[in-house]
Design a protein that fits this description.
CATH architecture of the domain at 1-75 and 153-159 and 181-238: 3-Layer(aba) Sandwich
Helix content: 25-40%
Number of strands: 10
Number of helices: 9
CATH topology of the domain at 1-75 and 153-159 and 181-238: Rossmann fold
Order of helices and strands: EEEHEEHEHHHEHEHEEHH
CATH superfamily of the domain at 1-75 and 153-159 and 181-238: P-loop containing nucleotide triphosphate hydrolases
Shape: globular
Strand order of the largest sheet: 6-7-8-3-9-10
Largest sheet: 6 strands, mixed
Distance between the termini: 38 Å
Structural class: alpha/beta
């Protein structure tokens, strides 16, 4: 459902990512783990078509993002770290806007809006200005618009960034529920996210994949995830 094949991105002489390759099959929740500046967001922007790679191919549901982007986008829900929320709009008006942009019409449009409002528990704030909502509720609004067109694949960039512990727990529970039916790639640098959500871990550092396996394989020698994270991402001599 998600394929990265030799993805590389240069900015002049700076290498953001180089030869990044992995595949995520249907129904798997994968934590894309790495320190700040490791290349997580660059990889996700290429996978979602927001950036063109310098080399390599990104596919969603078998559709090449560089040649068949509209078909790929129809299968994809993308939540960037700072989602496209308009502070003067209400959650309802925002969802209506995105429903129209996605080509949802008639009774199906209203059914989908009501479904994501229930799923993301937005009923109590549906008529309030988004700019007056807490970060947790704004994240729920972002998740609702991502789910509106019923995508098979979700790509979530730091979905719990800036949330308090209760809000983090709520977002993680939502992701776990969604992971029962959808393919999910979520970027994070929070190790607890891996333990709480992921079936598999892909760890990137300095633009290259350093590990790809299960959380259990990452700590198979009995050491904690934090020790392995440090070992795989540290720079320079020990």
């Amino acid at each position: 459902m998600i394929e990265a094949d030799g993805l590389t991105k240069y900015y002049g002489s700076f290498i953001a990512i180089e030869d990044v390759s992995f595949r995520v099959p249907r129904g798997e929740v994968v934590a894309f783990l790495g320190p700040n500046g490791a290349g997580k967001s660059t990889t996700m922007k290429i996978l979602t078509g927001y950036l063109a790679p310098s080399a390599g191919t990104a596919r969603i549901g078998g559709h090449d993002m560089s040649t068949d982007r509209l078909a790929a986008a129809a299968r994809l829900g993308y939540l960037p770290e700072n989602g496209p929320l308009y502070p003067d709009m209400t959650p309802r008006s925002l969802l209506e806007f995105f429903a129209d942009a996605r080509g949802l019409r008639g009774s199906h449009r209203e059914e989908r809006i009501e479904a994501v409002v229930r799923q993301c528990e937005l009923g109590s704030v549906i008529g309030k200005a988004i700019g007056k909502l807490s970060k947790g509720y704004r994240q729920r609004v972002g998740m609702a618009q991502v789910l509106l067109h019923e995508p098979d694949v979700l790509i979530l960039d730091e979905p719990t960034s800036g949330l308090d512990p209760n809000q983090i727990r709520e977002v993680r529970e939502t992701i776990r529920r969604l992971g029962e039916k959808k393919t999910i790639l979520l970027s994070t640098h929070i190790l607890q996210e891996v333990e709480a959500i992921a079936d598999r871990v892909i760890l990137i550092s300095e633009g290259r994949i350093k590990f790809d396996g299960t959380p259990g394989e990452l700590r198979r020698d009995g050491r904690g995830l934090d020790e392995h994270f440090y070992e795989l991402t540290k720079s320079g001599p020990a």
